[in-house]
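Dear all,

This email documents one entry for the complex benchmark we are building for the journal club exercise. For each entry we list the sequence lines for every component of the assembly. Then comes the predicted three-dimensional structure of the complex as a token string, followed by one or two observations. Please use this as the template for your own entries, and keep the labels exactly as they appear.
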Amino acid sequence: MRKLLPLAGLILALTGFAQGASLSSRAQSFTLANGMTFWVYERHQIPTFFGIYMAKTGSCDEQAGETGLAHFIEHLSKKGTPVIGTKDYEAEKPILEEMDQIGNELSAELDKGPQADGARIAEMRKKLAELQEKHSAYAVKEEYNKIYSENGGRGRNASTGNDTTQYYISLPANRLELWFLMESEKLKNLVMREYYSERDVINEERRMGVENSPSGSLFEQFINTAFLVHPYRHEVIGYMHDIQTFTKARAQNFFRRNYVPNNLMAALVGDVSFAEVKRLAEKYFGDIPRGAEPPRMLDNEPQQNAERRVTVWFDAEPEILIGFKTPGRESRDSVVLEMIALVLSAGDSARLNRDLVQRRQIAFSASAAANFLGERYGSLFLLQGAPRHPHTVAELEKEFYGHLEKLKMEPVGEAELRRALNQAEAGLYNGLDRNTNLAMRILSNAQVHHDVDAEFKRVEELKSVTAAEIMAAAKKYFIETNRTVGILQRKADGGEK
Amino acid sequence: MKKALFLILLLSVTLLAQTARDPRTLRYPELRFAPPKAQTVELGGGKQLLLLPDHDVPLVRVYVLIEGGSILDPQDREGLAALTLRSLKSGGAGALSAEQVEDRLDELGTTITAFAGLENSTLTLWSLRKNFDLSWQLLVDMLMKPRFDEARLDTEKKGDLEEIRRRWDEPIGTARVMWSELLFGRSQPEGRRTSSASVGAISRSDVVEFHRRSLQGKRLLIAVCGDFEPKRVTAMAKRDFAAWPVTRTGKSVAAPLSLAAKPGIYLVDKPDMNQAVLLLGHLGINRLDPDNAEMTVLNYILGGGGFNSRIMREVRSHRGLAYSAFGTVNAGRDRGDFTCFTQTKTQSVAEAAGVIAGIIRSMTETEVTATELETAKNYEANSFIFRFESPAALLYQTMTMRLQGFPDNYFDTYLARIGAVDAAKVKAMARRVLSPDGLVVLVVGPKAQLLEPLRALQLGEVTELPQPKE
């Protein structure tokens, strides 16, 4: 009996994360014939699991005139199927078709811009509202959500970013099959109901997050200015005109093109078994045909050759964003720039906080981030801050540049590098005790970086960054002609009245 | 022939693939689980240690809960509790100066946070297992031997002043502050807020005194979960918190609440906005209200159940008036708040207000439908497991509920109580806690376009609220 004890201890040690280990030591995967990959991470302490799938499609995959479409699809995805969300699909179908016809005409009219016929637009909108009302008789509002909720689903949501879109929920462990059915049905039989009223919802989301928020407004103007061509230049939510006008046919096209199994990856983390996940994946997702690889945009952003600057006047206290164009994540420089961001702002001891917030109290907040907008394409190295009254945003801007100059002139000391690295390393483990967090990280590694251990390997790479490399990268990227500055100023303090 | 057969086969495969599956046909095995229970160790003098090890990830999390928060701020020293808590971390501790503490934390890759709530203050820590002992020591020193460095206090106060300057920047922030003022009034702990005068008046001795009198000697609960050795941590806690004074009995009792503002519509002018923030409600209930199962179901149906709630369904799904729309009756030390919230374009503010007010009234007049009731109850029953999902969440919940006076076996009877709720009880509860004729309505948005439509609403007089300087 006593002999068994060390063995039990050994098993325990093996099933836990060993320090310095990786996700691949515990996460298992398989790929269906249609190209869809599933990751499974078993832990059985509590009978729940988190299910998520991620499309390698985000706002950066939108074409001109369809900004916001990736996010719009995310909203539409919970509108049901021929058996979910309806009392009688056959009866509602003609109404939906009639709505689409008017919707197409409305889009065409709106696209005429200043030549559009206002009366006609109003009439079509009225007709749409009437049909929407008529459709209500057949619709079962939010039934997709209701089914999940009645089965104990928690935190059902979805999010769209520049690089990816993800759909997720936590469920009790005995509802595993429900997840497979619901999520696969969404891909196979989605009915885009309430298409036109959902536009209004998104308009409100835009007003809330962008137009009426000082930080949101500044951010939108800033990225619009930093990029000329690359789709990282627009907000995920899109522009109002696009949201109002992309037709359902266009949305369906986008959906068909991007939501193919070979562009999707799923993760199930918690009290599930690999064998069961595999069986259900075959059963529910196996019959979805493989699609063509979604088109990928070339990184065609022209070289920036001059400083760009934008000022937003708002009824709010000042803020500043400074962005420098940086190369894609696969380049060595990108690793070095990540290290620089850590030195500048990882933890309270980092340079920006210690100098600008604590010691000299010029800033209310000051931070840095690498690969700020996304990781599929070259992006921005961002400095972000708010001056502390009576210091001005101009003073803070100068102080930021002072820190960048220091990086160019003086090698970063060993103790500082070590503190930065230790935090990066500890950060690998933070949140791994939560199913949600772990699953998201498995997918962003595997789906965006093609390696489930990408972030672990990245930290190893960070360890190899030298002080000389930091100086070289600072000199190369932190220059005037490579930067964009966005400033938020209080209306009363200037600008055209 | 062969070709035709193939075509038929192909066709049937395609049809099969497109036949929509109905999730309601699925049957599920029973879910068996025994919620993990935290081990409680009495540390003496009213202090408790809760332990829940889990060796899956080499991380340790610690939560410290102290019965004392901003409710104890003296008059004219609003912000003292918050400043004291933040300064435990930022003001240096034990043998280390403020910057040395920060260097050490970053060297270890450890995160510690400290913040004051209304009634309780919280410190949290997470660290790698290998750095736990040193991290723990920092946490202990912050609580037992804070240095409250004078220069750091000054920086923190300047930060508070800047926050006051930025208080009205975001429309939602403005709405939140004005809402507490309308519901609770500025003399009650729930409605008080910092001012440059109150922050300016705080001296170092106020902070030292607050730590000594308002935190030390209050009930202290420490919870540890993750990858640790219970015996060792117990010994460490006993050793390190022995000097934390014995709990002084007797809760500080603030005055009972009454609705501060007269029911009616209040308007804060933000002329540049094209969307308004809209809030409706009044006071809520006591947290120990015996009918909280009824309350839970009522909240879910009214506006707490996301897309399954009436407010979200009507305001967002049906009318497309908003992205965010919800409303719940919340519990508090005396009475909490009842708050319905949405943001909608200027032109539809009156419509949204009317719709939400109508939903509130309907809850008191007609019984909820069988479907609504079933969805709410099924959700509560089937998602019950998530109350125990993570050791950290379980511990935090246990600690908070202990401080709030709930019995430890509260959840043992929870599902039975939910099961007993019916439509008549929900209606009775609605009549008891909702006052459709006594609503306070707050609108933050452009006055010029809002005044007329708001006056036309039958929700009381429209009063303009000037945005306060602070």
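Observations: DSSP finds 17 helices and 14 strands in chain B. The longest helix of chain B spans residues 2-18.
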